[in-house]
Write a structure and sequence with these properties.
alpha/beta; about 230 residues; Endocannabinoid_amidase; Amidase_dom; fatty acid amide hydrolase activity; AS_sf
């Protein structure tokens, strides 16, 4: 209901994922609970969900209903999460605004005269609007960072190849920088919880190209300062 309300205001949802209520009933019967048990989660439009399109904001993909969940969605479900909506994006996903010719312009829920940022702007708008507590976006050069910043949220672009990129909609371009899926939320601990859940044996079994390195709890909880490297020019 909240997602519908926020969507009416800012146009951030492209589809509701059918079967989420059935998944919830199934979870109630399970004895073993995953790290994300019962948590509703929003999914960026271009990430494949069974029975839905992954438009990428492009008309050419509208007729292509996906036959299976992408690996990240399979792992989220394995951990008890309930994907419930797909969220709006920028056409082709390479820019910092958020509009396309299919679902039109999105607005920032904090200020309807502003953009939510892109390309994961639907995720940013839905979470900032209070209708999702955890979402999955994607990032090449700011597509998680920018909407997180514009909408007052937290986001993480993981290290390249840390999470399986498999089965997103076919790209029409080749990128020199690794595109990565990653979490968006209202606090850092939620990002950490999502990464703990994703970096599990299920992920490593489904995609053997992902290095089988679990979440490093010791580094995350340590008070020792991290060393950060950067460069001033390229």
């Amino acid at each position: 209901g909240e997602a519908l309300e926020v969507n009416r205001e800012v146009n951030c949802v492209t589809d509701f994922i059918h079967g989420c209520e059935d998944q919830l009933h199934t979870l109630k019967k399970q004895k073993e609970k995953g790290l994300l048990h019962g948590i509703p989660i929003s999914i960026k439009d271009h990430i494949n969900c069974k029975g839905h399109i992954s438009s990428g904001g492009m008309v050419k993909f509208l007729g292509q209903v996906k036959e299976e969940d992408s690996i990240i969605v399979q792992v989220l479900k394995h951990q008890g999460a309930i994907p419930f909506v797909k969220t709006n994006i920028l056409r082709t996903m390479i820019n910092y605004d958020c509009s396309n010719l299919i679902f039109s312009q999105m607005l920032n829920p904090l200020n309807h005269l502003k953009s939510p940022g892109g390309s994961s702007g639907g995720e940013g708008a839905l979470i900032a609007g209070g209708a999702s507590i955890l979402g999955i976006g994607s990032d090449v050069a700011g597509s998680i960072c920018l909407p997180s910043s514009f909408c007052g949220l937290y986001g993480l672009k993981p290290t390249g190849n840390r999470i399986s990129p498999s089965a997103c909609c076919d790209s029409t371009f080749v990128l020199a920088v690794t595109a990565m899926l990653g979490p968006m939320a209202r606090d850092v601990d939620s990002l950490a919880l999502c990464m703990r859940a994703l970096l599990c044996e299920k992920m490593f079994q489904l995609d053997p190209t992902v290095p089988p390195i679990p979440f490093d709890e010791e580094v995350y909880t340590s008070s020792k300062p991290l060393r950060t490297g950067y460069y001033e020019g390229d």
